[in-house]
Write a structure and sequence with these properties.
Radius of gyration: 18 Å
Strand order of the largest sheet: 1-2
Mean pLDDT: 86
Structural class: alpha+beta
Low-confidence stretches: none
Keywords: Plasmid
Distance between the termini: 62 Å
Shape: elongated
Largest sheet: 2 strands, antiparallel
Number of strands: 2
Number of helices: 1
Length: 47
């Protein structure tokens, strides 16, 4: 008899706050796409 493993419960991502200085901050989930976040930070820093 073959058994199927029980599905793993998905861990709820936590929120990470990134302080950018000058009163600016970005809040993202801990499992954020780091490449996309890098592009966003590049744009924010240019303004």
């Amino acid at each position: 008899m073959e058994t199927t493993p029980a599905p793993r419960a998905r861990k709820k991502p936590s929120i990470v706050t990134i302080e950018l200085g000058r009163g600016r901050r970005i809040r993202v989930e801990s499992d954020v796409d780091t490449e996309a976040l890098g592009r966003i930070l590049d744009v924010v820093e240019r303004r």
